[in-house]
């Protein structure tokens, strides 16, 4: 029976990928669908733009958006406050993931590995592929430096929020476990005497989380998956060009089957394919990097020089800095609060252990995967350089460094890989669709939790949310990158405003947990299990 | 108190191995330890929703295993005059069965030959073969 379920879900996935091609045959001759896209663009753009301009308003006298400074400052403060926890405790985090500190009695419960894997599946997505391309093409290779820095600092924010996520999670009588910023903002703040303020923060966070689940967790994903499909089916000549609603509709149907229809096998297939795709992606990146091994030194030099001088790219240092920090945060979601939802279900006696484990997430996502993408783009030569000066050629009209065929976003990454591995764009298209899909599934979960926090935990309210979510998949695939990217960024970053206010208040609680745990660990009071949880376990 | 303990790997369907082990146990005055393993890996990938429900599902799986499979069988064997205990654990079947055998100081393991479909066994390896290869005590494979 299970085999049939898997087969069915695989067929559905294939159908989702082949659907556009089938539709092409059915509608040979074409319809006037470009106007639908244009209409959607004209509606979505104006609605979202005031919100976007508020979130990305610059600090007076500078070009730095206040929200980027807000997030990076918090990450830096937590780094110092927790005594550089992201460097000290990584070896211990790896041992935790390997199950060395998981009692065999807990077999069958959520392990550190599983919580981390799910959270990573939710964050590794188009931010790592498309977002990095945007950062490097707008901010220059120097943006990579700021991305890595942001990833390393972000580990401390992630540590704080995920520890709180576990500490203040809610365990329902039926055994379900649910946590995240809504819970710790409400319960944690109440514990330190800020009941009303905590509730306000929790509600504001939940509103932003719902918006972000429709934006960054949905529309952006659908949008970039669509543009990648257009590229591999023939670019501007493709049937899908300007018909985003078709891709959107197919993806929406699959998402609907999973989140409303409860066909978990589709989600399960994706969950299994995503890590595989991630490894494949990284391997391909390494192949491209090693094939150009002679340029690696120059690429790193460009990254470091560009980080501080801008290398003649418009916007210079600030441009590289803003793009790097912005895209890194969008990718690893540190300080945003989303990951705390996924991490909170882990089985552990010490909440801080999941905090340690969660630090690996920005590391894998940003320091490893994003950097690999950035190196591939830099090395591949898709960014045009002036042969005389060695500076990048700025394309004023596109607002980015000039590229072959004016590519941007995921198409640029695809072209960069294509310079060395000609067939890789096809694999990348599959990876992009799968990453997009798994990120959507994760975000639909985050969103529904926030929605139910606001509107009540019942079937009808859940269903309304999920139907709206599917609608946004179609919208996201149809509108152009600019409007979608801005809105998805803005809604995601807005979550960070309320989450981080709460983190400042609750950080002392995390510090107490950390100090007492490390003391116990040093004193040998934390039991270690040679075999880990996998081998065996008595039942309750 | 019986002097010897037989570990019996019970997958929930294979009565043959239980009946055979019961006969041998009665003849030699040994006690029986029924082991039922719920297949589980700490490294599997779950969706966020599955993470949320994991604790609940684990409880349900344990209840179902003991209520529907193991407890009635234990009662039946006890009724037949045997000394019986049972273990229900999560994990990889072969490893768990060997662990229980070690913990209990068992002198023999009984395992059925049937079970999963041929194809699945070819891909993932069968518990029977795993035990035959890794067991440190005599293991009886009941056809």
TrEMBL record, chain A:
| Major localisation | membrane
Subcellular localization(s) per the UniProt record: Cell inner membrane; Cell membrane
Cite the entry's keywords alphabetically: Cell inner membrane, Cell membrane, Membrane, Signal, Symport, Transmembrane, Transmembrane helix, Transport
Record keywords: Hydrolase included?
no
- What InterPro entries does UniProt report for this protein, alphabetically? Na/Ala_symport (IPR001463)
Family membership: Belongs to the alanine or glycine:cation symporter (AGCS) (TC 2.A.25) family.
Topology relative to the membrane: Multi-pass membrane protein
Q: Mind telling me what this protein is named?
A: Alanine:cation symporter family protein
Q: Where are the transmembrane segments?
A: 39-59, 66-84, 129-149, 196-214, 245-266, 273-293, 299-322, 363-383, 423-446, 467-485, 491-510
Q: Name one Pfam family in it.
A: Na_Ala_symp
Task: Give the signal peptide as a residue range, or say none if absent.
Answer: 1-23
- The reply on keyword Transmembrane helix is yes
Q: Which organism is it from?
A: Jiella mangrovi
UniProtKB/TrEMBL annotation, chain B:
| InterPro entries in the cross-refs | Rossmann-like_a/b/a_fold (IPR014729), UspA (IPR006016)
**Alphabetized SUPFAM superfamilies for the sequence:** Adenine nucleotide alpha hydrolases-like
Kindly name one Pfam family recorded for this protein.
Usp
UspA domain boundaries: 7-143
Which ranges of the sequence are coiled-coil? none
| UniProt family annotation | Belongs to the universal stress protein A family.
Name of protein: Universal stress protein
